[in-house]
Hints:
The chain contains two helices and no strands. By secondary structure, the chain is an all-alpha fold. The longest helix has 22 residues, at 23-44. It comes from Streptomyces fumanus.
Amino acid sequence: MSMAVVGLIAGMALGFAGYFGGFGAFLLVAALGAVGFVVGRFLEGDLEPGDFFRSRGDRRR
């Protein structure tokens, strides 16, 4: 699935949440989407748990 389609689906989900549930539901859907994105990146192996806990001077490129 292309990133454009994923973006379209995410935008539609946020739009429906905002329309039917109000701003609070919009924020909840956006926050849960961000958490799901990070978890998905962990599961794919693109992120390591230490990436969030290293200082800037410790990062390897």
